[in-house]
Each structure stands twice: as structure tokens, then as C-alpha cells.
Amino acid sequence: MDRRQFLVGTGALGFGTSLATLLQTLPAAAETDTIIVAIGDTITTLDVLRTGLSRASYQVSVNAYDRLVGFDTKVNPDGTVSYDSTKLHGELAESWEIAPEGMSIVFKLRPNAVFHDGSPVTAEDVKWSYDRTLGVGGFPPYQMAVGRMEKAEQFEVVDAKTFRLNVTKPSKLTLPDLATPIPAIFNSKVAKANATQSDPWANDFLHRNEAGSGAFKVEKWEPGQQLVYVRNEQWVGGTLPKVKRVIIREIPNQATRRSLLERGDVHVAFDIPGKTAKELIESPKVKVVGQPIANTLHVVVPNLTFEPFKDKNVRKAIAYAIPYEQIFQQAAFGRGTPMFGAASAEPKDITWPQPFPYGTDLAKAKAFMAQSAHKEGFEVPFAFDITMPWGEATALLVKEGLEGIGIRCNLERVSAANWRTLALVQKKYPLMLENFGGWLDTLDYYFFFSFKKSIFSAGDYDNPEMTALISKTMDMPVTDPDYAPSAKRMLEIAFEDTVRIPLWQPWLETAMLPNATGYQNWFHRGVDARPLALT
Predict the structure, then answer these.
(1) C-alpha–C-alpha distance, residues 97 and 409, integer Å
(2) Cβ neighbours around 318 below 10 Å, total
């Protein structure tokens, strides 16, 4: 049995086997060429375009596939590294040129870029991949439309190594949109060979089989257990990874993940709850990296289809009855950025996210309830996704706060498998906890998904002035003289209408052994294995 077979055959370290013991068994080189990452979520598919995929599945697109472009990274004041939303570099694209009027972008592909089967990456693969992104339905075409990519006719093969993208309107979001996990480039030759008349986009095949050109190849996928990456020695989209193999272990129980890390059985415990981070940060055995998740908020959302919540006075009463600081300490354990209690009722500037002007003030809350048509109070179902580590404690404290103004909450704990359909598609719940993060780090992008009537707006909010401002600013450069006043007006409306009540901006926190290096914080909240290394 060779070293690779041993790692995979043992399930990438049985729980009773310590890392130190294993490394004594293997050659010394094994100490730094395989890294083991524990995650709490389940990778449900290898296809980033598959309907209903889990968040953990996005990292397959990042590690095994390339895009035309990617975001750069930056070093933060505390020495940690995160992505830089303001700068882009080429992955499969060697260069690109934007037409003077901004209506098209011509990409030159790297001449030596190849897929994992050794076949060259061509402009035809790019076009087929983008055609598929629009053709599969669901979220992918919605995301592409953000960058003004809405029709297959916009994707043009100039020659084998030249691709032209024609946009419906010049937009600041087009190039950044191409750097998200969605517009991954698939090996169209392999996909077409496995397509059928009933499945022209080879969805079934790509669900179980990887067909990319990225830094890693998927060597083995055991759903619910582990995914094993092996380094792609022919990768030209960036700096070759330092480790040859990455094992992603799915360990749903947080206590088990922590125990495995502290025992040295895994190198990295990815995306740990605030409570664990707060406890581990004092441990000499591990190091903890925590950074704010860009453009992301934990919020309380009243659904405006529920009669009492059509009354703005009721919504404001809720906003002043929530025990924010208690929630921040007991649910977030102080690990995050508070988004409540702004000193002024007016936005200070157009920084996003920024604290909203709501704080705990029971007298104000009761006054607003008294002005409403529901001053006697009412009962309301209050839902949250049971997989939210912060959900239970937050819901109980919100429930307690609202009882003080006569609103009696009946908690509904919803499974993750049903949450998106019930909360977003069907908009079933009158009151809920929600977590939304915007991949592109602009105020207008967040508002596009959360403050206008759409499948992603759980509160079914529809304000014509807000919708018009979102449409106006989405494509507009932030340097445009009209951007700042328009963005400020959007914030003023959000403050006044009280349809999303922010609690805090969460941090993505990850713990690792002292010899694990290269960790980076990314907007997609997935493991980027490419820079990871062991000393």
C-alpha cells in the first residue's frame, strides 16, 4: 500500500489515530505535502451550477476549476490575508481589453492552459460554460445578470484562444462578477461526451465528476465523509500550491472538530462558531484567524405579507425591543462587528455595512406599539435555520424582548434542507432570522438582493423609490458624482422603513495548528486550499 492509498483507505485519519503517530509511519516528506481540513457542512455536489447546492460545495469551484479572472489578495492590519475586492488578475485569461464604450471585453486565454485530462482550454470551452450557466436555470443566470450577462448571444468565440464578451450595458460589476464561483470554465469536450438528449448540459455527470482546469484535481469524493484533492502539476492559473494533497473531512459536530484539532488529528478547523473561537484564542496549541465576512449581516426580518408588519410603527417597535448587546455577547460571544446603536438617525456616510440607528429602548418600543393598530399585541411564528450556530440563542433573546411589547413569538426551528425553499421561495414565515452575504462588495449589490422584491428578499419588501435607486446605482461606478448621494438616500430609506433589522456583521473564524500557514479569508465562505501550506 502506497502513501496515497493509506491516507484515503484510513478515511484520512481515523479518529483514534493521532497525526503524530501517522507521520511516524510515513516518510518525512509526508509531513508537509498533505494538509487535512475539517469542515462542518456537507459538500453536496461537485457542480457549482447545481440547484440547491450547499455553501460548502462552492469551494470545489474555487479549487478544482478556473475562471477567466480572479480577485487579488491583501494583507490586513492584523497580518491576516483576505481577498481584495478592488483588484483583479487573470486566471485563464492572460490579458483582457475593454472596448472604449464599455460594451465588450476581449479576453486572450493563456496559450498553455489545459484541463485535468490534458486537453487545451479554448474559447469554445468558455462559451459553452457560460451558455450552460444561463441554461441551467435557478440562481446561476440570476448571478450572471448582475454583471449584465443575460443571453447566450453575448458570448462570442473569436478564435481558439480569444473570447469576446458583449454586455447589455456597461457595468462596474461585470469583471468582478466573473471572479465569483459561478462562471467556472468546464471542459466542454468531456461534458458533451456525457450529455444526453434529456440532459443536454450533462448535469448528472458533472454532479459526480469534476471537469476543470484548476489548481487541484478531485481525486476522491465520498459524500458526507470527505473530498480529496490532489495537486494539478500543469496548473497555470496562479502559483502552484505548496501541498500535493488536501483532504476535506466533513465533521458535523463542532465539539468533535475542536477535539480533532487540539489532538493534532487535523491541521485546520474551518469556520468555527464564535464561542469556540473565543475559547481557543487563548490556547497555545492552536491559532485563530477571524475576519469580517464582507457585505454580510445577521438580521431580523419581518415579512410584510403578515398584516401587523405592514404597519411601520410595529416594525420600529420590534427594532427598539430587541436586546442587541445581550444577543451580541451570548450568541456571537463578542466575535463580530455590531450593527446596532448608531449615534445618529442619519447615515454617517455611504460606508457599508454600517450600524443602523436602532438600540434597545423599551420605552420607545412601547410608544411605537401604542401608535399602531396592534397596540394590544399579537402572536407570530418566528423561524430560523437550526444549523445557524447563533440561531437558537438569538431567537430566544429576541422572543424575550418582544414579549415586553406584547408580541408573542412561537419559535419554529427549520431544517437546513427546507430553509431556503420555505423562507425565500415560499416566504412562509412572518418573522425570521436571516443571514445574507453579498459576493460583490458594494452597497448596491447587497441592496439588489435584499431590499427589492425578489426571490432573495425574505421580507417581500417593495418600495418603488428604493427599487429605482438600486437600478440606478448597480452599474454606476462608485466614483460617479451621483453615486454617493444616491447610495446615501438608499441607506436613509433602509433606516426608516425598518424591513431588515441588523444585529451584527459575522466574522469567518478558522482555527489551525501552528504549522499550518497560508490561510486566506474569502467572500464565498469556502475553503481556498490553493495557498495552504505546512511548515
Answers:
(1) 55
(2) 26
Say how far apart CA 398 and CA 140 lie, in whole Å.
34
Q: How far is CA 277 from the centre of its chain?
A: 20
What size, in residues, is the chain? 535
Burial annotation 32-66 (CB, 10 A radius, 16+ → b, else e) = ebbbbbbbbbbbbbbbbbbeebebbbbbbbbbbbb
* Helix or strand holding residue 63 (H, E): helix 58-64
Ordered DSSP codes for 68-124: SEEEEEEE-TTS-EEEEEEEEEESSEEEEEE-TTSSEEEEEEPTT-B-TTSPBP-HH
Strands 69-75 and 81-90: antiparallel
- Who's near 363: CB < 8 A, 6+ residues apart? none
331 DSSP assignment = T
Torsion of the alpha carbons at 269, 273, 275 and 280, rounded to the nearest 10: 20
Q: Are 493 and 466 in contact (CB under 8 A)?
A: yes
Check: CB of residue 339 under 8 Å from CB of residue 353. Answer: yes
Q: What single letter denotes the amino acid at residue 300? A: V
3-state secondary structure of 336: strand
DSSP H/E element including 319:
helix 312-321
- For 147-203, the DSSP string reads TT---GGGEEEEETTEEEEE-SS--TTHHHHTTSSTTPPP-HHHHHHT--SS-TT-H
Q: How far apart are CA 417 and CA 177, in angstroms?
A: 27
Q: What is the pLDDT of residue 11?
A: 40
Asked if pLDDT for residue 27 goes beyond 90, the answer is no
Residue 112 pLDDT > 60: yes
Q: Residue 165's closest CA among 122, 130, 214? A: 130
Tell which residue, 466, 10, 37, has the closest CA to residue 247: 37
- Give me the amino acid identity at 183: P
Measured CA to CA, the distance from residue 460 to residue 484 in angstroms comes to: 26
Report d(CA 7, CA 22) in Å as an integer: 9
Q: How many angstroms separate the Cα of 450 from the Cα of each of 124, 309, 467?
A: 35, 17, 11
The per-residue pLDDT for 417 is: 77
Nearest to 356 by CA among 315, 308, 303: 315
Give the pLDDT confidence of 306-353 residue by residue, as tens digits: 999 999 999 999 999 999 999 999 999 999 999 999 999 999 899 999
Task: List the one residue out of 316, 323, 318 whose CA is nearest residue 338.
Answer: 323
Nearest Cα neighbor of 494 from 447, 445, 427 is: 447
Residue with cell 437558537: 392
Cell of 174: 461585470
Residue of 185, 105, 107, 175 lying closest to 146 (CA atoms): 175
CA distance linking residue 172 with residue 60, whole number of Å: 27
